[in-house]
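Open question from group meeting: does this chain pack into something compact, or does most of it stay loose? Before anyone orders reagents, we agreed to write out a predicted structure and look at it together. Recording both the input and the output here so the notebook holds the full record.
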Amino acid sequence: MLAVVVGLLIAASPASAEQACPASNATPASASKREILRATLCALNRERVHNGLRRLKLNKKLSRASRRHAHDMARRNYFSHETLGGGTFVDRIRAAGYLEGARSWVVGENLAWGSHGHSKPSAIMRMWMNSPGHRANILNPSFKEIGIGLAYDAPVENGGKPVCTYATDFGARG
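Structure tokens returned:
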């Protein structure tokens, strides 16, 4: 019975994927940031569960770091893991308070942006899963938590509409 269920999940149609993660095929023009964020978290966790990993829990401090970075990139027209001032994602995560009191920790970051149909959470997930570095972060068994930041603007001039810039910060503290 389990093999049949797994086979059905692998062969699932895009419609059933949309049912499992509502708004995963929505653009910023047709969904709120909350809906896009939830669809992104759902899609990330679907990939992790499909690969035998535990779900990531949304963390407020990681989300603060992610949200600030997505908005900064969109506002100041750059796309990088480093800020224009040279700050790293570790610096941003530390400034958000996530690492306070941790004896050990591991963090990672995925960024993306897209316009029109490429701004959908499902399109962003396809891009990340087809990129070895992004895929490695998503499927890193050490990560337990995630922050997701969205900006409904492009990190470049004339990025097209609808558009969304994504920043995801992964973490685990010991």
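Observations to bring back to the group:
Confidence is low (pLDDT under 50) at residues 1-18.
The longest strand covers residues 105-115.
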